[in-house]
Amino acid sequence: MIPLSRRGFEELEISVLEAGDHMWLSARSPQGSVFAVKRPLPEWKLPRDVTGRPVDEPGEWLTDAVRHARPDAGPEALEVGRVLTDLVFGVPEIGTLLQQTRGTAGTAGNQLLIRVLAAPSRIAAWPWELLLDPQRPDRFLSMARDVHVVRSGRSRTYPIRQAPIDPPLNLLLVMSSPLRSGPDESEAPFDLYAEKRSLLTELQPMVDRGLLRVVVEDRPSVER
């Protein structure tokens, strides 16, 4: 048996994007990919919170259940998990990809890492850890010994309009040479000043055009 500390991971990445009155789901792993499957928005039937206020979002329900340690949250958690599981693994191709990736991980003695990338923030706040195990629909997938479920925030990949910066752009070049590996070594790992000359030569055209101002610190210290 392979010790847990030496096991690797097979990754399955699931993307969930809200788009108006529907959602787009995609998934990928080393075993294959599923792209842009259109799914309807799930319908939630959530209990009221401890104050009697209606709850519209599963993220709000989870916060209320955990904050107040509600003893009746078990059946509700399973129901939320069923809705999330139907949304994701109700897509046959994604369900098949899950089983293939999980099987590959098991054969190699590895764990399965399911990474959920959801947007916008309202969707990212859904309790994806409550996804159910297709092999055991009465158990959460995150409770399986061979599976880990994590949420990953989606990063902005498109440019943001900003006011242009008036030139020149200031560039501080700090020079620091790696230490020699031993007292008997007479040569530095690389020629620091040759690297400096090469970099400044490449930047010189922008300096000449007034677009860049370069300041070089040859002997940096904690004081400056």
UniProtKB/TrEMBL annotation:
Source organism's superkingdom? Bacteria
Q: What is this protein called?
A: Peptidase S8
Q: Which organism is it from?
A: Rhodococcus oxybenzonivorans
